[in-house]
Amino acid sequence: MDTRLPPFRNAPRVAVLVKGYPRLSETFIAQEIAALEERGLDLAIVSLRHPTDTHRHPVHRRIKAPVAYLPEYLHDEPLRVLRGWWRARRLPGYAVAWRRFRADLARDRTRNRVRRFGQACVLAAELPADVGRLYAHFLHTPASVARYTALMRGLPWSCSAHARDIWITPDWDKREKLGELDWLVTCTRVGHAHLQALAPDPEKVHLVYHGLDAARFPAPEPARATRDGSDPAAPVVILSVGRAVAKKGYDDLLEALSLLPPGLHWRFVHVGGGGEAAALRQRAGTLGLAERVEWRGAQPQERVIEAYRAADLFALASKIDRDGDRDGLPNVLMEAQSQALACVATTTGAIGEFLVDGETGLLAPPGDPAALARAILALARDPTRRRVMGEAGRRRVLERFSFEANIGAIATLFGLPGKAEAACASPSTRP
Q1: pLDDT tens digits for range 162-214
Q2: Of 6, 70, 247, 350, which is the most exposed, with the fewest CB atoms less than 10 Å away?
C-alpha cells in the first residue's frame, strides 16, 4: 500500500486526518466520509497509523478517497521524516508552527507531542498544493497534526470532536485549537457545552449527532424470540458490542451478571476487540461465568447485525476511566435500537441524551453492578416489555437520530448543499 498522498485531479480537496484507517470501531467516521463523497466533496484520507483490524465494513468499500499513511513512529521512516522536515522548514508558516510546537512541548513534554510535529512536517511537505482544507477527526493527536500542518501551509482547518479526545485533552490545548480552527462539530450536548465554554468564539462549535444510516441497519425480520430465562434450553441472550477497555465498564457488567439469581437462565455474548479482553476472560472465570460467556472478538458489520438480531437484550456499562476518558454517545446503542433491541446502560456521558429511561431501555448509575443487575433482571424476565421498548427505540432512532438529517449539517459547513437546521439545533431543542 502506497504511503504517500497522490496528486489530486480536482481542486480543492479536503484532507481528512484520522488516527487509523480503516477501523471497525469507527464506522461513524467511515459513514461520514462516504456520505460527503456522495454529495460531491473531494476527499483524501490521511491516517496517522496503519490498520490493525483484519476485517472491513461494507461502508469502507464505498469510499473512493485515496489513503496515505504518515510515519506511525518517527524512527520507523527516519529518511522520510528528515526529508519532510527539510522541506517543511522552507514553508512560509514553518516559523509560526515551530513556535507553537515549542510552547506546546513546554507544557506537554512527551514523545507523542514530538511525534505530532514530525508527522505534521511530513504531511506539510508531501501535501499537494490543490488541497484546500484540513479536517481532523478527534481533538487530540489528529487535530494537533492538522493544526501544525495548517500553520506551515497557510491552510484553514476544522475538526470533529467525539468523546475521549474531548476529556483527556488539556483545557489549554483545546482553547488554542478552538481559537485557530474555522469550525468544530461535536456529537453530544455535554461535549458541545464544554467546548463552547472554552472557545474564544462559541459560534464556531456546532452540535451534530452522528446519527444512524438506516440503509445499513434495515428492520429486523422475523419477530424476536420471547425467551424469559425460565427454560435452561432457551436462555436469554444478553449482548454487548464494544472494545474491551476500561471506560466500557465490562468489569462492572461481569460483576452484575454474577449477581443474577441462579434460577435465571442466560448467556452473555461480547463482540469487540480491545486490550483488556484477556483480563476480562480471566475475571469471568473467577466469577464462575466462563461457561455462560462467549467472546467473539472484532467482527465485520454483517456479523454484528446478526448478533443484534439474535439477542434478547443489549447491555453497556460505560463509566468514567481514571484518566477522565469516557463514552460520548456510543453508536452501538443506536445500532442495537435500530434492530428493536431493548437496552440496559448507564448514565455516563451522553447516553441519557439518546436512551429514554423506562421507554426505550433502562438506565443505571455508572460503577453500580447491583443496580445494573436489577435492570438486566427486570428486562430478562419480561419479553413483552423488551419488545415494547425495542420498538420504541427503533422509532426514536429513525425519527430523532437520522443520519441523513445530521450529515446535511456537516455538508453545509463544507459549503455543500444541505440543511444545517435539522442537526445543529441548540442543546435545549435537541432530543
Answers
A1: 988 999 999 999 999 999 999 999 989 999 999 999 999 999 999 998 888 88
A2: 6
Q: Give the gyration radius of the chain's Cα atoms.
A: 22
Q: Which amino acid is at 172?
A: W
- Domain assignment present for residue 7? The answer is no
Give Cα separations from 375 to 253, 283, 379, 429 (angstroms). Answer: 11, 22, 7, 29
Beta strands in 10-121 (DSSP E): 13-20, 43-49, 67-69
Instruction: Quote the cell numbers at residue 56.
Output: 472491513
**Spatial contact of 154 and 175, defined as CB atoms under 8 Å apart:** no
pLDDT < 50: residue spans in the chain: 1-3, 7-11, 419-431
Out of 188, 207, 226, a domain closes at: 207
168 and 264 co-located in one domain: no
Residue 429 belongs to some domain of the structure = no
* HSE-CB of 331 using CA atoms within 13 angstroms: 23
pTM of the full predicted structure? Answer: 0.78
DSSP, residue by residue, 120-160:
HHHHHHHS-TTEEEEEEESTTHHHHHHHHHHHHHT--EEEE
264: phi then psi, degrees, rounded to nearest 5: -90, 125
How many domains would you assign to the chain?
Answer: 2
pLDDT digits (tens, 9 = 90+) for 229-238: 999 999 999 9
pLDDT of res. 429: 35
Provide the domain limits for residue 155: 13-207
